[in-house]
Amino acid sequence: MRFAGGTDAKPLTEVLGILRELDATGARNVPDGAPTVFVPSRWQGYLDEAAASGDATAYRHYWELRTLLALRDGLRSGDVFAPGSWRHDNPAACLFTPARWEPHRVEFCRLVGKSPDASEALPLAGPAER
After folding, report:
1. Claim: this prediction has a pTM higher than 0.70
2. What are 78-126's pLDDT values in tens digits?
3. 4 CB contacts (<8 Å, ≥6 apart)?
């Protein structure tokens, strides 16, 4: 399964690609320099200890577990999505494009009691208020 996401999810999607490659080739060791930016500091010690002791198996287990937990969290938050998935597709796909929104704007604003004029709804701050 393929995953995508925004700029913040880039390290995680890179890691998922590395994990996919490890599984496809049957390799056992996580490559040197594999991203760990998604690993919380309370878990980083486990990775550091496994790396220092040369225990590649333990390192792989901790790294893979944190990858899967980060994927779960990313899917829940919408930062990571599975293109084509019904449940975990890109959240932006559910939004109106500006062209589709325009015919609905006046009626929606009337229903919620707001002005369709953005300058009335969001007054700009003057120089003294900034």
Report:
1. no
2. 787 776 666 666 667 667 888 988 898 889 999 999 888 888 767 665 5
3. 13, 80, 81, 82, 83, 90
